[in-house]
């Protein structure tokens, strides 16, 4: 009969369509609105007055004009990169478990797993029972560093966190764009906060219109506030990148759970050193680290390599176990020998 198929042939749950909930676009629209407001304020009330195109040549300040041109060019360059990274962070799927790969299909009947295949996969994150991790919502086995997002309703490869400001999860395939988005936001906000202070001082002139004074003060205040907030958040992600950790891994391994002390690991299981960790996020080519292109190499399913610290630790652990096993055998043989000697002496 057709209904007598095994558990491995069960149909997996249907995936929800992306961007299907319009209400979740509200944070994105808020970000776009904020970017637009700051862009208009900085350009109209700071850059254009410094360029002085409306002032006759005889009354222009050449030094202020040159600074205004440089600031405008640099501001637009960073802003274009910021917008590209923001769009790519939204549109780029962070990565998910393959659908048609049999090694990730969950067998709810608890069928036998080929030990050779399991060893070849080199999974490091297992259950306490020693079984493979699986997702009860997606009906699939989980690779390392993969977690289920209840907002996106799917498992995300190397999931860092779900970000409502981009209406997307931050994972393996779009983490670089999210990281660069923070970088360009920090640069733009610091540029506005430090350079627009000159316009704030100038706006205190008695002849300055109230609308101009309000916009300049509002832009300066907002850029300082967001600059402090995003700089702190960006520094945290720099630290995570250099430590080869995600936000979820940081919360699971570094934060106490339910009032219990959790043993703190000094290094991540996937640590390749600061330079190697940066390559796994920003790509193999150092020249393309700061541009939204050349994503990291890999499929997001496997992270343990011959260069990783985990492999070296495992090899060291094997040597220790081998030595300990040999020592234990020697001790047992010595004890058995001494007991034999005592027995033979007693028999004498």
What topology emerges from the helices and strands here?
Blueprint: H1 26-51, H2 62-91, H3 115-121, E1 134-135, E2 140-141, E3 147-149, E4 154-156, E5 161-163, E6 168-170, H4 175-195, H5 197-203, H6 210-242, H7 247-254, H8 273-282, H9 309-347
Antiparallel strand pairs: 1-2, 3-4, 5-6
Helix pairs in contact: 1-2, 1-6, 2-4, 4-6, 5-6
Main-sheet strand order equals: 1-2
By DSSP, the count of extended strands is 6
In terms of DSSP E residues, the strand content is under 5%
Summed up, the helix count is 9
- Overall domain count: 2
Structural class: mainly alpha
Tell me which oligomeric state these chains represent: single chain
Helicity level = 40-55%
Biggest sheet, open or closed, and with what strands and sense? Answer: 2 strands, antiparallel
- Spans where pLDDT lies below 50 across 5 or more residues: 1-12, 318-348
What average pLDDT do the residues reach? 82
What does this structure look like?
- The protein folds into two domains: 15-96 and 164-288, no CATH class; 308-348.
- It is elongated and about 85 Å long.
- The longest helix has 39 residues, at 309-347.
- It is 52% helix and 5% strand.
- 26% of the residues are buried.
- The protein is built from nine helices and six strands.
- Strands 1-2 form a two-stranded antiparallel sheet. A two-stranded antiparallel sheet has the order 3-4. Strands 5-6 form a two-stranded antiparallel ribbon.
- It starts with 25 loop residues before the first helix and ends with a helix.
- It has helices at 26-51, 62-91, 115-121, 175-195, 197-203, 210-242, 247-254, 273-282, 309-347, and strands spanning 134-135, 140-141, 147-149, 154-156, 161-163, 168-170.
């Amino acid at each position: 009969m057709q209904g007598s198929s095994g558990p491995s042939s069960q149909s997996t749950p249907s995936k929800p369509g992306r961007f299907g909930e319009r209400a979740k676009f509200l944070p994105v629209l808020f970000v776009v609105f904020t970017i637009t407001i700051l862009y208009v304020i900085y350009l109209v009330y700071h850059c254009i007055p410094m360029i002085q195109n409306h002032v006759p040549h005889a009354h222009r300040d050449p030094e202020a004009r040159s600074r205004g041109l440089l600031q405008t060019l640099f501001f637009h360059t960073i802003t274009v990169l910021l917008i590209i990274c923001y769009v790519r962070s939204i549109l780029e799927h962070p990565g998910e478990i393959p659908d048609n790969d049999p090694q990730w299909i969950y067998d709810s009947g608890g069928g036998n797993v080929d030990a050779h295949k399991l060893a070849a996969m080199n999974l490091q994150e297992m259950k306490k029972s020693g079984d493979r991790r699986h997702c009860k919502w997606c009906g699939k086995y989980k690779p390392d560093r993969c977690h289920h997002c209840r907002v996106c309703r799917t498992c995300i490869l190397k999931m860092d966190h779900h970000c409502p400001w981009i209406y997307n999860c931050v994972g393996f395939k779009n983490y670089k764009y999210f990281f660069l988005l923070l970088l360009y936001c920090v640069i733009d906000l610091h540029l506005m906060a430090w350079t627009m202070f000159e316009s704030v001082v100038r706006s205190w002139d008695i002849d300055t219109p109230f609308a101009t004074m309000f916009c300049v003060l509002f832009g300066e205040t907002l850029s300082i506030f967001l600059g402090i907030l995003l700089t702190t958040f960006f520094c945290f992600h720099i630290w995570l990148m250099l430590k080869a950790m995600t936000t979820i891994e940081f919360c699971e391994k570094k934060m106490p759970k339910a009032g219990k002390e959790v043993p703190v690991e000094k290094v991540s299981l996937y640590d390749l050193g600061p330079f190697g960790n940066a390559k796994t996020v920003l790509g193999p080519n150092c020249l393309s680290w700061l541009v939204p292109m050349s994503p990291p190499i890999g499929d997001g399913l496997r992270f343990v390599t011959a260069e990783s610290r985990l492999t070296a630790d495992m090899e060291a652990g094997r040597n220790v176990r081998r030595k300990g096993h040999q020592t234990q055998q020697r001790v047992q043989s010595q004890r058995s020998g001494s007991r034999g000697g005592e027995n033979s002496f007693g028999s004498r």
